[in-house]
TrEMBL record:
Name this polypeptide is given: N-acetylneuraminate lyase
PANTHER family listed in its UniProt record: DIHYDRODIPICOLINATE SYNTHASE, N-ACETYLNEURAMINATE LYASE
Localization of this protein: Cytoplasm
InterPro entries in alphabetical order: Aldolase_TIM, DapA-like
Protein family (similarity comment): Belongs to the DapA family. NanA subfamily.
Catalytic activity reported: aceneuramate = aldehydo-N-acetyl-D-mannosamine + pyruvate
One Pfam family it belongs to: DHDPS
Length: 76
């Protein structure tokens, strides 16, 4: 396995995971796009998804994957 250097310059924001205020407290995927756009508009060059306050590890893969996919859409 080869190792590539991580050469990043700019601001990387650790993002939060938004939850709905309902009985199941499911992930609120609807806020990801506006939040990602807001971060980009503020000059944030990269985000750390599912890695801030531990909520990522409390979610299963099916709940984490859409957050990553939605975040990657704004990676341009």
């Amino acid at each position: 396995m080869s190792v590539r250097a991580f050469n990043f310059r700019g601001l990387m924001a650790p993002t939060f995971t938004a939850f709905k205020d309902n009985s199941s407290q499911s992930v609120n995927y609807e806020v990801i796009d506006p939040y990602a756009k807001w971060l980009k508009d503020k000059g944030i060059k990269a985000v750390l998804v599912n890695g801030t306050s531990g909520e990522g590890m409390s979610l299963n893969v099916a709940e984490r994957r859409p957050q990553l996919k939605n975040g990657k859409r704004h990676d341009k």
